[in-house]
């Protein structure tokens, strides 16, 4: 009997390569998302620190020029925070799309692997049947030969 040959092996290999590429893309997006979230957190932390400083200075007495400078800086930070939130939201959306593509590709690969396993199980079953048939044929031939030898002796 010939060796097992899965007819869709090349398709399976290609799908697995696609899955690996999407996984790498997802990892890159995840890294970018992490950096952008850190950037957002730094902006928020910076804004909180400046607000705290402004409150301290206001309670201790601050001149108008410094207060305006702090308020302007806080407005700029607020705008940067909103912009950064949009960047993070956009990357999250990209991440979710990529994750969805990865899940679809993983399902395809699993489906092809299950098909391969079923076909291999069928191949194995047929192989074992063929092997058993050969063993039975050998046993029958040996039995007939022994019977012929026994009758020749009589």
From TrEMBL:
Its membrane topology, per UniProt? Peripheral membrane protein
Q: Which GO terms describe its biological process?
A: bacterial-type flagellum organization; bacterial-type flagellum-dependent cell motility; chemotaxis; protein transport
- The residues forming a coiled coil are 74-133
Q: Can you cite an annotated GO cellular component?
A: bacterial-type flagellum
**Location in the cell:** Cell membrane
The UniProt record lists the keyword RNA-binding: no
Which keywords belong to this entry? Bacterial flagellum biogenesis, Bacterial flagellum protein export, Cell membrane, Cell projection, Chemotaxis, Cilium, Coiled coil, Flagellum, Membrane, Protein transport, Transport
Family the UniProt entry places it in: Belongs to the FliJ family.
Matches recorded under PANTHER family: FLAGELLAR FLIJ PROTEIN
Name of the protein in question: Flagellar FliJ protein
Please tell me the species this chain comes from.
Acetohalobium arabaticum (strain ATCC 49924 / DSM 5501 / Z-7288)
């Amino acid at each position: 009997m010939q060796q097992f040959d899965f007819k869709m092996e090349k398709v399976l290999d290609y799908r697995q390569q696609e899955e690996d590429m999407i996984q790498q893309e997802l990892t890159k997006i995840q890294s970018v998302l992490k950096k952008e979230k850190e950037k957002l957190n730094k902006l928020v932390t910076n804004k909180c620190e400046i607000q705290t400083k402004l409150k301290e200075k206001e309670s201790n007495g601050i001149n108008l020029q410094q207060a305006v400078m702090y308020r302007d800086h806080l407005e700029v930070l607020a705008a940067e925070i909103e912009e950064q939130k949009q960047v993070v939201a956009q990357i999250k959306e990209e991440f979710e799309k990529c994750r969805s593509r990865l899940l679809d590709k993983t399902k395809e690969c699993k489906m092809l692997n299950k098909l391969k396993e079923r076909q291999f199980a069928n191949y194995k079953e047929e192989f074992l049947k063929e092997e058993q048939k050969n063993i039975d044929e050998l046993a029958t031939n040996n039995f007939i030969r022994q019977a012929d030898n026994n009758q020749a002796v009589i």
